[in-house]
Amino acid sequence: DVRETLVLLINQAKERFSPYNMLYDQLVHLPFNRPIYVLSIGTAAYQMNEAVLYHATQEPFIRIKESLVVTRYGVDVKQQQNTSVFHANHLIPDENSLKAADAVINFLSKLNQDDTLLVLLSGGGTALLEKPAEGTSLQDFNARIEHLVKNGASLEEIDNERKNMSQIKGGKLLQHIKCKHIFIYAMSDIQGDIPKFIASNPFMPDAEKVEDKMSADKFHRFDNLTAEKFTPVDKAVTYKIVANNHDFCEVIRQTAVDTILSLEPDLIHVMTTELSGEASRNGKEIAALANLIEKQEGKGIAAFATPCLLIFGGETNVTFRHEGVAGRTTELALSAVEELSGLMSCGLLAYTTDGRENFCDACGAYVDNLTRQKLEEAGIDIAAAIQSNDSFTALQAVGAVFPAEPSGLSV
What is the CA angle 363-367-371, rounded to 5? Predict the structure, then answer.
């Protein structure tokens, strides 16, 4: 059963890739037996904070003084000792994003020079935490960003404008921190792992030179961070990418090697970790590749023998031209249906690692050679559903959608 196999595979990979595992080896780099304040921001913030608190109970040298978590709506939380949790909207800043920003500033202002700050960053942090510049309302702030997005502005253009209109982004939170030692562990949902784009990096001024790409296996130190608009500070900031899309795809591959015994290891391929562009285009191209592999099978010229597993990582997008209900995973999956309809033993699972699509209540979708028939029997026109950006509605009608779920990941 291809569907059952792929669902089991993604769940096992998530378990191996959990914050508990990715953070454990990093905690030994923190100063021993000194008070540590933990600030966790992002869609995976609660799970990352929970992992640190758990390891602190197992390792006496880790002394967590207090934690503050800022995460998105819908994340279930349990009461944790000396931990405060704020929920806000992770797509567009709302009133709770402003309250969270004030809480973060108050939290940081309590730290003394000899304390240690551990920052845990994950995707969604950009909107969860915001304090518009003086004279800029939240409505004006959001309207400006929405205008840039709809007019096709680049990530850098949008990020620069967001920082210009913010009192906390682009390193501006540093002015509220008295402690010298700051450790930032980031779960990257940005291609290239560029720190200034992850949660619009509130702890590193853009005026400083940084590498365009951060190695996933090395620490990068930025000492004496200063900029003209800041009072000179003496900080030791250690920034590390603790997880990214490439790492997760490799974990999926290794999990498949270990658990799907019917597959030869050299027939399990990570095709790319830089998938980008329109989800609908990617869905068609991936399904076309599957078609090509099957047609070449047995002719002695096949690029891939079967059975095989192809893994694609990255971040696609959906351009909404109509008022339908869709997400990246449902749009990609529905766009693959026509090409997959002629393949007897091929299935496609599209999954978003943070467990929830931005614009629909789904974490993923599965389609195979039977999906087209099910859609036709339900009276659904596939082309019309794609054209109207209504892929979620279409696939949900035939049981092909997986409901949103907390994942603790964002890569």
Answer: 130
